[in-house]
């Protein structure tokens, strides 16, 4: 389902704000090693394309985590702000960054073959392996 809703959010200290219009109301979990290492567990991502504005851009640090992607975080408080495919200008925002927490539905999990065995989610989701994600 396409999202027509604008969502606002901010980092913990408020130095960076975000206004986003996600492509849908669906949340996708990423179980890749980098997401788990970055946040201590899977990333709960809201997908965004062009409809994204950051306030306080001078407080955003960017780290190129692979040849094709970068991750952003607040320089002051360390809040995770985004994962971005560089060439596509496609953002995945941690859904917890955004207000309106009841507006979301868990719909998919990627890198499912990398998910640790010590947890699982009750929701039935579309599940893609690392190969399925990388060979799209």
User: What is the first-to-last residue Cα distance?
Assistant: 21 Å
Low-confidence stretches: none
**Structural class, judged by helices and strands?**
mainly beta
- Total strand segments: 11
Secondary structure: helix percent = under 10%
Query: What is the N-to-C order of secondary-structure elements (H for helix, E for strand)?
Result: EEEHEEEEEEEEH
Percent of sequence in beta strands:
35-45%
CATH architecture: Beta Complex
Q: Into how many domains do the coordinates divide?
A: 1
Quick one: CATH class? Mainly Beta
| Strand line-up of the largest beta sheet | 6-7-8-9-4-3-10-11
Global shape: globular
Give the biggest sheet: 8 strands, mixed
Note the total helix count: 2
**CA-atom Rg in angstroms:** 14 Å
